[in-house]
Amino acid sequence: MWAPxxxxxxxxxxxxxxxxxxxxxxxxxxxxxxxxxxRRLSPARVGDFRRVSWSGGGAERAPNGSPPVxxxxxxxxxxxxxxFDVTWEEMRxxxxxxxxxxxxxxxxxxxxxxxxxxxxxxxxxxxIWIIHxxxxxxxxxxxxxxxxxxxxxxxxxxxPGSHRVKKLTGLRFEAMERYDDALQIYDRILQExxxxxxxxxxxxxxxxxxxxxxxxxxxxxxxxxxxxxxxxAWHELAELYINELDYAKAAFCLEELILTNPHNHFYxxxxxxxxxxxxxxxxxxxxxxxxxxxxxxxNQSMRALFGLYISSIHIASNPKASAKIKKxxxxxxxxxxxxxxxxxxxxxxxx
Length: 351
Fold this sequence. Notes:
With about 350 residues, the protein is mainly α. It has helices at about 70-75, 80-85, 90-100, 105-120, 125-140, 145-160, 165-175, 180-190, 195-210, 215-225, 230-245, 245-260, 265-280, 280-295, 300-315, 325-350. It contains 16 helices and no strands. Helix 11 runs antiparallel to helix 12, helix 13 (about 265-280) runs parallel beside helix 15 (about 300-315) and helix 15 runs antiparallel to helix 16 (about 325-350).
């Protein structure tokens, strides 16, 4: 879903979507320690650079046997480089990875980015500006207005006329729910650069945040007339139509996405869900076919598997269906049920 307030272009993060947390990339053994006793990062651990003290001290061991966790005072005073065996270069590279892979792990970005800017700013070179931007948006997510303003002021001093920096100012206004001020900034950007897609998307996001979905749909349709290849815009329009219960138009948007992304199982699955919601024998049969295709593209999708099961069940129980159609769909439903049961048995075995 397109987040309506400050969830926008986080250095490559789509203006229409939230991000995701990522995993640590490291070549050391999980849980190993360096010679000075600092714990190394685990290569498969989600949410790296956590504020946890591994040096002992007065920390208590968790009941489940996990390593000792620092007290709240230790957490506030500890630095990433003190807690983990990492250099400032590794921290900088981790920030770059989070940007390039569109992670939105804002708390960890603040931990690492704040220390980079306060302790190692002279070493960062030109990277300092993109880190300021990254930290500012993470600070908006976490409600750290002090960091928002400090990074924004640095960017304004360095790039006084930049549309990118003006857009960041607009994001701050959005976070404060000062939508009129944000709209004025985006309008000024568009007057100077009518092709600025980010500003147009932010205006639509504000309409959505204000609950003015009809206006958001109208402006998004106008946007797509000029930028017909914007796949994220098509998906956002589909979501808006779904929210308005206009399933026929939502299906049209998803068909556009399937045409341009024929190997993306998610679009087949969402289209199938829309057709299932519309109901009727014809739509149910179409729904089952698209759930099947989604499952073919991603055989690990439990959502598509459940969709195949329930659509087949409903077709088999539809009085308008012929005997052959009912028989075939009973077979499909039985197969899907067996696959679901098998998946849960495997899951229980692995627990």
